């Protein structure tokens, strides 16, 4: 296949849906509950609703939406620290656009900007690096946010700043990793999960073997998937086939893009610039060991936590969520977005209470955009 339209072919989708139905019926003959498949990536969540796969899929399969949106899992305390840095005199604070409206305990970055803070939306950390070159008398801070997908670009920017001696550039590092929260979810006895659809973009960087523990230690299948409808349907079928055969393995449906061992250049940059934090707080999951990255001491001159004296060293964590907001439970798949009492009432895209309604990859935003709002309002 060469064109996106081939991955959206109705006939191919119908054939896959029929195969899924047959396999789900086969599994259903031996169990009462549907097969619960968690898609880890927020991009997959949006694709599922955009193409109506949640409505088309056999009733013996249920999608569980996982913590696959890095903006959404960011705890409110870290947003508060972003605002604190941005409101420091002389700072130009740069961020991706979907982080602008994420609410902190006091305010969002957008509200801080409206109050006079110099906050600028960028498309890449390289944009922030260029701002530092053009503004040698200002401190330029980049909000380093995302899973392994965006981590290499931030690492390469820090390396470039070090080579050039751009000491007015720093990164507020909030990069996080995918495998550790999956381990935490699998360790929760209340979670009913039968398999996973693995993240495609993350796996382009890290490959497929970091997920080996899911099959080896927990006996759950995982299939790394692409983002088109036939990608996702084929991945569901591959998970179901493993369940029906009583086996668990890591499989790569997205082999046209994802190399088995990842991208060596990206992995080298990550290893050079970052090290694992002892723990990192996730919204909805709490503290998870070694799930976040921090900048290594040799690059401390470009670490905003060091430069501004904030972050985990200060002990400021666990800021409570807005009362009535169920972001945490939705984030880990224990509630559907429409089961949150604030969905469509106190929380809308225009006036969000939680990050899941703000981010382009948030589950609540997906529900709102693709018919979930109509269901909630019915």
TrEMBL record:
One of its GO terms (molecular function) is carbon monoxide binding. The keyword Isomerase does not apply. Pfam families: HypD (PF01924). GO terms for biological process: protein maturation. Keywords: Iron, Metal-binding. Gene3D superfamilies: 6.10.20.100, HypD, alpha/beta domain 2 (3.40.50.11740). Belongs to the HypD family. NCBIfam families: hypD (TIGR00075). This is Hydrogenase maturation factor. The gene is hypD.
């Amino acid at each position: 296949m060469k064109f996106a339209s081939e991955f959206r072919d109705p006939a191919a989708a119908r054939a896959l849906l029929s195969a899924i139905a047959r396999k789900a019926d086969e599994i259903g003959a031996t169990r009462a509950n549907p097969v619960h498949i968690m898609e880890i990536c927020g991009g997959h969540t949006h694709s599922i609703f955009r193409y109506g796969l949640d409505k088309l899929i056999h009733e013996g399969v249920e999608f569980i939406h996982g913590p696959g949106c890095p903006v959404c899992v960011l705890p409110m305390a870290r947003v508060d620290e972003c605002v604190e840095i941005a409101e420091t005199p002389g700072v130009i604070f740069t961020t991706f656009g979907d982080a602008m409206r994420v609410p902190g305990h006091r305010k969002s970055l957008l509200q801080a900007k409206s109050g006079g803070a110099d906050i600028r939306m960028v498309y890449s950390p390289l944009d922030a690096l260029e701002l530092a070159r053009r503004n040698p008398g200002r401190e330029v801070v980049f909000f380093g946010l995302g899973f392994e997908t965006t981590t290499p670009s931030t690492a390469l920017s820090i390396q470039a700043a070090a080579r050039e001696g751009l000491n007015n550039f720093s990164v507020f590092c909030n990069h996080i990793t995918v495998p550790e929260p999956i381990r935490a979810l699998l360790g929760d006895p209340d979670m009913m999960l039968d398999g996973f659809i693995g993240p495609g973009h993350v796996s382009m960087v890290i490959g497929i073997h970091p997920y080996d523990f899911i099959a080896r230690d927990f006996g759950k299948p995982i299939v790394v998937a692409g983002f088109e409808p036939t990608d996702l349907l084929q991945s569901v079928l591959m998970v179901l086939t493993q369940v029906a055969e009583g086996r668990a393995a890591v499989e790569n449906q997205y082999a046209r893009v994802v190399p088995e061992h990842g991208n060596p250049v990206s992995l080298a940059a990550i290893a050079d610039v970052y090290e694992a934090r002892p723990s990192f707080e996730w919204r909805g999951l709490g503290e998870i060991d070694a799930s976040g990255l921090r900048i290594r001491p040799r690059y401390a001159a470009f670490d905003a936590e060091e430069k501004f004296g904030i972050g985990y060293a200060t002990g400021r964590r666990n800021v409570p969520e807005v009362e009535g907001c169920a972001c945490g439970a939705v984030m880990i798949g224990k509630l559907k977005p429409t089961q949150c009492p604030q969905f469509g009432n106190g929380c809308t895209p225009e006036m969000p209470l939680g990050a899941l309604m703000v981010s382009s990859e948030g589950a609540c935003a997906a529900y709102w955009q693709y018919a979930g709002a109509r269901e909630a309002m019915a």
